[in-house]
Specification:
The chain is of the alpha/beta class. It folds into two domains: 129 residues, 3-Layer(aba) Sandwich (Rossmann fold); 29 residues. β3, α3 and β4 form a beta-alpha-beta unit. It starts with 5 loop residues before the first strand and ends with a helix. The protein binds magnesium ion (MG). The site of magnesium ion has 7 residues, from loops.
Length: 165
């Protein structure tokens, strides 16, 4: 079993001071449930400010996602970050691409993600610091459930309306 080196509630809880203390100047970031709700085009609250404060502290960030380019590219563009899509975590390939783009040593790089089997295992196997965050979606799942129930009700009444006509 491979455990994370550190864990935080949200990415925004990872301070530049902590990173500097650990010698981390390059941060690879998972997207879904780490920076945003899964498949959601907007970053979670505070993420943009957090990225700005990292940059001000000389910490570079990049997106490393297993999701497809159509999801990752517009999201990365919105945040003004370089990205690696189809990252195939936990395999090393995506981590290696990321590190080469950064042009850094493994010891200066960390991966932040919400999944043990992909993000954390991948980071540990590849040999960079592994930082676990709690998946964002868990807190928001009630919202999606409600939304789906409402959508279902609306669809049903819409179909019934259609049959009446
Ligand atoms: Mg994720």
């Amino acid at each position: 079993m491979l455990y994370p080196d550190d864990s935080f509630h949200r990415v925004t809880d990872i301070g530049a001071g902590y990173l500097r203390e650990k010698g981390i100047a390059y941060l690879a970031l998972d997207v879904d449930n780490t920076l945003a709700i899964s498949e959601h085009p907007a970053p979670a609250d505070g993420v943009e400010d957090w990225l700005r404060s990292l940059a001000e502290n000389g910490i570079q960030a990049m997106i490393l996602s297993n999701n497809r380019p159509e999801r990752v590219k517009p999201f990365a563009k919105r945040l003004g970050l370089p990205y690696v899509a189809n990252g195939m975590k936990p395999l090393g390939r995506g981590f290696e691409r990321c590190r080469r783009l950064f042009g850094c040593q493994k010891s200066e790089m960390a991966l932040v993600g919400d999944q043990l089997l992909t993000d954390i295992w991948g980071a540990r196997w590849y040999g960079v610091r592994a930082i676990l965050v709690e998946p964002i979606e868990l807190e928001d799942v009630w919202y999606f459930r409600c939304k789906r129930i409402i959508e279902r009700i609306l669809m049903r009444s819409w179909k019934q309306e259609g049959q009446k006509r």
